[in-house]
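Today's session is about reading a structure prediction critically. Students often jump straight to the picture, but the first step is always the sequence itself: look for stretches that repeat, for charged clusters, for runs of hydrophobic residues. Only then move on to the predicted structure, which in these notes is written as discrete structure tokens rather than atom positions. Here is the chain we will use throughout the hour.
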Amino acid sequence: MFADSDYFWVVLCKNHRFHHKGNTSYAHRIALGETDAYSSPPMLTQQVTVRCDHCGAEYAYKPTEILRNEMEIPADFVPHPMFR
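Below is the predicted structure for this chain, in token form.
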């Protein structure tokens, strides 16, 4: 049995004090936009400002900090404006 995998461009929230309360190895992933397993990383020339869906903090991320991740996404997911 093969399950369909959903891939998303994500960044790791920089608000470590909020997200690492019980587990210091945990990194909260913020989904930016849907992708597939083979696409190249987005060719961005500027930083992307992202607000965390859990803690509400807003941080700027360099293009090199955008990662691909396989994850389940909540039904209320709205892509980041740069990834629509």
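Discussion point for the tutorial: The first strand starts at residue 7 and ends at 12.
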